[in-house]
Design a protein that fits this description.
The protein is α+β, with helices and mostly antiparallel strands. The chain is built from 10 helices and 15 strands. Strand 7 and strand 8 form a beta hairpin. Helix 3 runs antiparallel to helix 5 and helix 7 packs parallel to helix 9. The chain is globular and about 55 Å long.
Length: 427
């Protein structure tokens, strides 16, 4: 089967749960591309099973129906892993992106965003140490967007899954990250896992124990965190699935921690994705969840935790922290023994200030513009080469997010980073 037909066939199989009428808007569309890294060769996943107390009771509450359906959803048979022996599964990313653009041609273009380098960022890496592209994004769970979040300035047909999924895929295909960290994923098995597997990624998914999506009818199961990595770039070493605790009690928030080995450099990299408790009034809980995650990361990245070839594995932590930089959980990460720095502070003139916003929405309670999403990294072992800039207020538009031209209420974050030379390699 030729690549175009493979793309069309697979896209046609993707589940559509929305009953909303199709769009009626018209207008030209002009998509902007950013060149992404890629590699050759691939290898199936062989990582270890994750840890975490999935059966423990949550302190966050939830309906009995949510508990039942969440338990059932997590016990469903998992899809068969991607097999390289079937070449007909491979998709052409350029062809797939073009098909997304054709389907979305009556929607306005996504905001154009440039990859930015500042004087404080590292120089470009060489062919023996190519950059690693990391993407962080809360993509907005379909059930929450249509049934709970109440975006009063966003037309319902802009949230139609039949088209919104193509906007999400188009964003991913434009940037082609080596590692993709997502939150609020409620279409993992019917959309993201099959599509991205055929684009060369290996994925891992961890739903929330009591997902609020299950209180919405119709829904597509629980939402959760997902982490994908490009098989041609990384070999899996270990996977941990964590249910975050607060005051020694399990909560409804989760994290995935994936330890990888770079095929080019032979260096190890640990990547984590999480989504902390939302809304004001829960600052102390977020702080406790962050402390619990940091403790787990200290253990995983230490020499005894994963037997890495160096004493400590470099770390990248992506997530929707639901916390402004003024909150205690942000301070915990910036002052942790892991020596983490927030990548997006490098876009500021002083090198210490976060962007003015990573989410901008209008709900019945009013307009909210906040910085809640972060990419943390270990500057002692990793250097940032470039960052995807934040679109302007004019680009976002008066109705804010989500909208016809952007599928989520959160902006995607993206950075290119590379390994710093180890001292013994310089001798």
């Amino acid at each position: 089967m030729n690549p175009a037909r493979r793309c069309s066939a697979l896209l046609g199989q993707m589940c559509a749960t929305s009953l909303v009428a199709p769009l009626r808007t018209t207008g030209a569309r002009n998509c902007h591309s950013v060149v992404g890294g890629d590699g050759a060769g691939s290898q199936p996943m062989s990582g270890t099973a994750g840890s975490g107390s999935a059966t423990a009771l949550s302190v966050m509450g939830g309906s009995s129906s949510s508990r039942l359906f969440s338990t059932l959803a997590q016990s469903l048979p998992q899809p068969e892993p991607y097999s390289e022996e079937n070449p007909d599964l491979d998709l052409d990313p350029d062809q797939l992106r073009k098909e997304c653009e054709e389907i979305l041609q009556h929607r306005p273009a996504r905001p154009h965003r440039d990859l930015v380098r500042s004087t404080c960022m590292a120089p470009c890496s060489h062919k023996y140490n190519p950059p690693i592209r990391i993407m962080q994004w809360n993509i907005l769970a379909q059930a929450l967007g249509e049934g709970k979040d109440g975006f009063v300035r966003c037309p319902l047909d802009a949230l139609n899954w039949n088209e919104r999924k193509y906007l999400i895929l188009e964003e991913i295909l434009t940037h082609r990250p080596d590692v993709l960290c997502l939150q609020e994923v409620d279409h993992y098995y019917d959309t993201f896992q099959p599509i991205l597997a055929r684009l060369g990624y290996q994925g891992s998914f961890l739903p929330k124990p009591w997902s609020p999506c299950l209180d919405v009818e119709p829904n597509n199961g629980p939402d959760g965190c997902a982490l994908f990595y490009r098989r041609s770039r990384f070999m899996p070493k270990a996977t941990a699935h964590l249910r975050l605790s607060a005051l020694m009690l399990p909560t409804n928030q989760v994290a995935i921690v994936q330890t990888l080995c770079c095929r080019v450099t032979g260096r190890w990299l640990c990547v984590a994705v999480t989504h902390l408790k939302a809304r004001s009034g829960w600052e102390r809980l977020r702080s406790a969840q962050g402390a619990d995650l940091l403790q787990s990361l200290c253990s995983i990245t230490s020499r005894g935790g994963n037997r890495a070839p160096s004493s400590t594995t470099p770390l990248v932590v992506c997530g929707d922290f639901n916390a402004e930089p003024s909150e205690d959980v942000y301070k915990r990460f910036s002052c942790s023994p892991l020596g983490l720095t927030s990548a997006y502070t490098l876009l500021s003139s002083d090198g210490h200030t976060e962007p003015p916003y990573t989410t901008w929405k209008v709900r019945p309670s009013g307009e909210s513009r906040s910085t809640l999403d972060y990419i943390w990294y270990t500057p002692a072992a990793l250097s940032i080469e470039s960052l995807l800039d934040i679109p302007s207020e004019e680009q976002i538009g008066p109705d804010r997010l989500p909208s016809y031209h952007y599928p989520s209420d959160h902006l995607s974050l993206l950075c290119d980073l590379s390994f710093r030379e180890e001292p013994h390699r310089l001798l």
